[in-house]
Amino acid sequence: MSHALQFYIDGEWVDPAAPARLPVIDPSTEEAYAEIALGGAADVDRAVAAARRAFPAFSRTTRAERLALMRRLLAVYESRLPEMAEAISREMGAPRPFALASQAAIGTAHLARMIETLESFEFEQRRGATMVVREPIGVVGMITPWNWPMNQIMCKVAPALAAGCTMVLKPSEIAPMSGLLFAEICHEAGLPKGVFNLVNGDGPSVGDAMSRHPGIDMMSFTGSTRAGILVAKSSADTIKRVHQELGGKSANILLPDVDLETAVTKGVQGCFGNSGQSCNAPTRMFVPADRHDEAARIAARAADAFKVGPADAEATQLGPVVSQVQYDKIQGLIETGMREGARLVAGGPGRPDGLNRGYFVRPTVFADVTPDMTIAREEIFGPVLSILSYESEEEVAELANDTVYGLASYIQSSDIDRARALAARMRTGNVYINYPAWDAGAPFGGYKQSGNGREYAEFGLDEFLEIKGIVGYGA
């Protein structure tokens, strides 16, 4: 990529204010295959200034003008979908078919849904003599993670464009190539100068400078709860809006009436998707106590069936995790689970046989996990499943909610009324009943330490709008 050592600011590719570089590592090989420039506060200042200059004109564009712009962006994005899939696969280790069909394609889905949302969204509402108006919040700072790069970039950029906001994006420095490619796509689509800006860098340098910047009106952050706290604290002095989608430790409740073979197998697949690197992964499987051992045997078979390998290998179902840091964290938590007395029924420490290089984790299942164990409480972010037991629906509801997180929960039952009743008790932003198809129109976000605000469709658009009441507007 010809612009890897530059930033995209004010409609141009520009050099960083100070020379600093970071290698980009292929997690399948542990080798650097590219370098990016690392920015700092001066680069953020330049990008924010461009966004502020662009805001007055862009905020006054019509719905039709923004729709035309977003449709051009969608067309260009779709034309470069294979490139995007290749970039994501290489930078974060997603198997090639998965990178194309899910990782890259999800950006298409979000942008298309936001176009549909904008077509009918009500920005003005009369209430007697008062007019209630929804207006763009201003300049938005965006910090996105490495695990679903285009999902999170598009979940922020699409509603910002629909609202009439201008923006500065800092993609993850661990998986930055997809973000750079997206900037090329924005340029090719003809976004006005200063509407979209990109500065690469790490959290302490660029992320903190964005959060503290008085010229940024809103921070939209997706990542760990730990980093989200830092963004919120840095943003507090300027009273800017902070929108966060953070960590999770999602429960998957299998009620006694399920087909256990199907429910457990799908639960393992859901947990291990994207190499377990999804904030809403169903990592805590709750099964009736009298069927715990049976569930453990099924889960072990399902885990052992996964083919682990390099992202570009044809048969690979489970690629590497993203980095040495992530690999070491997962290994430490697997060892902690064993030390605290959980029963290992599949996988375990170390790499799978035959894979001596790359950040590959053995698909791992623990049985006899108790709620106090570390692996039942901490977000592992790898292909590691914990199986816990329960005696009653009352107990399992309490156990599922006994976490600082509240992003998602999963319920499996052959009785939809029973599942709905239990869903009403879940303290999570999303509840998924019987492994449904993904829905780009469902609000996405969490309770408690999983964040605040929502993404997707009109729920995401609302986050980028201010509400103005004009009283005495007229009858």
TrEMBL record:
Highest taxon above the source species: Bacteria
Pfam families (UniProt xref): Aldedh
Keywords noted in UniProt: Oxidoreductase
InterPro entries: Ald_DH/histidinol_DH, Ald_DH_C, Ald_DH_CS_CYS, Ald_DH_N, Aldehyde_DH_dom
Enzyme class: oxidoreductase
Enzyme Commission identifier(s): 1.2.1.3
Entry keyword Acetylation: no
PROSITE patterns in the record: ALDEHYDE_DEHYDR_CYS
Reaction catalyzed: an aldehyde + NAD(+) + H2O = a carboxylate + NADH + 2 H(+)
GO molecular function terms noted in the UniProt entry: aldehyde dehydrogenase (NAD+) activity
Aldehyde dehydrogenase domain location: 13-468
Family: Belongs to the aldehyde dehydrogenase family.
The protein, known as: aldehyde dehydrogenase (NAD(+))
Organism of derivation: Aureimonas flava
